[in-house]
Design goal:
By secondary structure, this protein is of the alpha/beta class. The protein is built from 25 helices and 18 strands. The chain folds into six domains: about 170 residues, P-loop containing nucleotide triphosphate hydrolases (Rossmann fold); about 80 residues; about 130 residues, no CATH class; about 60 residues, no CATH class; about 50 residues, no CATH class; about 90 residues, no CATH class. Helix content is about 35%, strand content about 15%.
Length: about 675
């Protein structure tokens, strides 16, 4: 007879067809514990089936002209069915019956038993292995698969292939990074690959559910992967090899120019590349943006085998003992699909009840893993962290994963990636002494807060703000969020633990387009963190006079409070303390605090003897005083607007600033000051 291999587009379609085929062509499972009587009975039943099949009236199928159907594919929605409601799932079944509307029970034919098996990438490995085993006696193997069975697989006994001619692919927007699953026609090369699955071990045949005219309209080959995905990880690795002008690199298939530009812009914002000079003509500035050299932070990020956003998170996690947690979160975000899919069509009511029970168990565990208080604000990332920690604590067994709705294969991949990232971090920070701890404790509330800040620093371009009531343009915008890159509203995914809380500001891992734009991997952030951690994404206003600027002894820099707005969307953000902006005023404030003895402690002894108040440095008429102009010009000449720059200038010239400073103190103190100048130990 020979086996049958059916190619469909996605996981939901595979399960739907499997369910219908099992009902239409059922077979009785042989009970091996029943002895010879059961075997003889099953053989006798098979003989009866064959005789009844000969007597059965042949059903006339309608004639179908494929040219009457549109070539344009219909979007099938998201691969992840949990984004949809129960009504969506119930209505997603494909009507595979071509008859006159009789019930499935009336159409079922037990004389043609099919051994129907699904096959797709997220299927458990032990279930995938079933397709390579011999089917039960008296049955015909029928494998319903996605394009995972298109290449690199030879299923024994496959004689017939049924090709629907379509495939579900993930598409990325080159600028916004929004991903969506779309059903498209396959290429001619893919069609030939599918046809080649028939007759690998014996002569076979391929049935294509599309006409030859449609086949001739297919593109010859699928577009290379490099043209369809973000390329920031590729750009970073090339920059680490000192290939600065990536746009001029002779790629066999070059990525789109806009994708390269978006990748370099992201890497600059992450601090992985040095900022280009903002001088010269506009054309020169644009060219400089596409040839920025790698920064020291970028070289560290390039050592981690993950996306640059996640590498930035790892590079910032040294403090507060957050590295083990960040490594775990990054591993889970990289692997994806941690949880089992329970919204697939069920074969029987018993299986439906079983799937509902497992889904309820998973939802209960997700609430437990999410924690309370600050830990709960970490959102979906805390659920990932809790799931991995609980699985490792239980020994990462298949039983634990099955009982709690975790994908065993994903947990093993996360374990391997954790080990790989731990080794990479230890190679960069040799004194870190990290190891993969199977008994890792949950993070403290303080650590959970730091983790939220770390995630924000790595996913700065993925910030979203809840749309306020006065901003609602339509009812469909209710509970929606606005992002800087999209005009359309986006929503927190229904599977998120923050779905009902709706924080004002969130950061998300990705946006997936189905019937709506959904954010996945959502974590809550505080608005005051945004200007402090993401200055490249903020436009700052003038420094506030109240509170006034101050000197920071820890950094040796002038600090001030500035209001800001988030770029492109102009969200008003709270005023935060940041470094004073570059300019002549920063030199004036540094001169004032230097005279007051706040920059160099030894100079505080002379602050009471100054001939003029240091506040004169800030007056509009300060130029009328020769001593103010002399000190200011000396600081500007050596670019000394912070303590580190001042110490570097004294190393080059120990007498630097002596003449300018002497103008501020009585002449009787000049000799004493000259003996101990510079007033620091170099």
């Amino acid at each position: 007879a020979g086996g049958i291999l059916v190619f469909l587009t996605g996981q939901a379609e595979v399960h739907s067809l499997c369910r219908r085929l099992r009902k239409a062509f059922p077979f009785k499972k042989i009970n091996t514990a029943g002895g010879d009587d059961d075997k003889n009975e099953s053989v006798e039943e098979i003989r009866k089936f064959k005789k009844s099949r000969k007597r059965k009236k042949v059903m006339t199928l309608p004639k179908i002209d494929l040219d009457n159907y549109s070539v344009v594919p219909v979007d099938e929605g998201d691969e992840d069915r949990d984004a949809e409601t129960d009504d969506d799932i119930a209505g997603s079944d494909i009507d595979l019956d071509l008859g006159d509307g009789d019930s499935e029970e009336e159409k079922s034919d037990s004389s043609l038993p099919l051994y129907v098996l699904p096959l797709y990438s997220l299927l458990a490995p032990e279930k995938q292995a079933k397709v390579f085993r011999a089917p039960p006696p008296g049955t015909r193997l029928c494998v319903v698969a996605t394009n995972v069975a298109e290449t690199s697989l030879t299923i024994p006994g496959i004689k017939y292939v049924v090709d629907c001619g379509k495939v579900k692919k993930r598409f990325y927007d080159k600028i916004t990074g929004v991903s969506s699953f779309r059903v498209t026609w396959i290429s001619q090369a893919s069609a030939n690959q599918r046809a080649g699955r028939a007759g690998r071990t014996e002569p076979g045949h391929c049935y294509r559910l599309y006409s030859s005219a449609v086949f001739m309209d297919f593109e010859k080959f699928s577009a290379p992967e490099i043209t369809k995905r973000p390329v920031e990880d590729l750009i970073l690795q090339m920059k680490a090899l000192n290939i600065e002008k990536v746009i001029n690199f002779p790629f066999p298939t070059p990525p789109p120019t806009e994708a390269l530009a978006a990748a370099e812009e992201l890497l600059i914002a992450l601090g992985a590349l040095k900022e280009p000079p903002m001088t010269g003509r506009l054309k020169q500035q644009l060219a400089a943006k596409l040839s920025c050299p790698i920064s020291p932070l970028g070289r560290v990020m390039a050592t981690f085998p993950v996306a640059p956003r996640y590498a930035k998170m790892l590079a910032l996690s040294r403090q507060h003992d957050c590295l083990p947690y960040t490594i775990t979160i990054v591993s889970a975000m990289t692997i994806r699909e941690l949880f089992e899919e329970f919204d697939r069509p069920a074969v029987s009511e018993e299986e439906t009840s079983k799937l509902k029970g497992k889904k309820a168990r998973l939802l209960q565990m997700q609430k437990i893993w999410a924690g309370q208080g600050p830990m709960q604000k970490l959102g979906d990332l805390m659920v990932m962290l809790g799931a991995v920690g609980a699985c490792e604590y239980a020994g990462c067994t298949r039983k634990f994963c099955d009982e709690n709705g975790l994908r065993y294969k994903a947990m093993l991949e996360i374990r391997r990636l954790r080990g790989q990232l731990t080794t990479a971090v230890n190679s960069v920070c040799r004194d870190a002494g990290l190891y993969v701890d199977p008994k890792m404790k949950p993070p403290t509330e303080a650590q959970a807060t730091y983790l939220r800040q770390i995630v924000l620093a790595g996913l700065g371009d993925h910030v979203a703000r809840r749309i306020q009531a006065e901003e609602l343009l339509d009812d469909k915008w209710k509970n929606a969020y606005k992002t800087a890159l999209l005009d359309d509203p986006v929503f927190i995914h229904p599977s998120s633990v923050l779905f009902k809380q709706l924080p004002e500001f969130v950061v998300y891992q990705e946006i997936v387009e189905t019937t709506k734009l959904y954010m996945k991997g959502v974590s809550a952030v505080e608005p005051e963190w945004i200007p402090a951690l993401l200055p490249p994404y903020c436009h700052f206003g003038k420094p506030l006079e109240n509170p006034p600027p101050s000197y920071c002894p820890a950094t040796g820099r002038i600090r001030c409070h500035r209001p800001s707005v988030f770029h492109r969307v102009s969200w008003q953000l709270p005023a935060v303390e940041v470094d004073y902006p570059e300019g002549i005023d920063r030199y004036k404030y540094f001169a004032r605090f230097l005279l007051e003895g706040k920059v160099i402690e030894k100079l505080s002894a002379y602050s009471r003897c100054l001939l003029s108040s240091p506040l004169i440095m800030l007056k509009t008429w300060a130029k009328l005083q020769p001593r103010t102009e002399s000190l200011l010009q000396a600081l500007v000449a050596e670019n000394c607007d912070n303590r580190d720059a001042l110490l570097a200038a004294w190393k080059k010239n120990p007498k630097y600033l002596l003449t300018a400073y002497c103008q501020w103190i009585p002449e009787a103190m000049h000799d004493d000051l000259a003996k101990q100048w510079p007033p620091v130990a170099l």
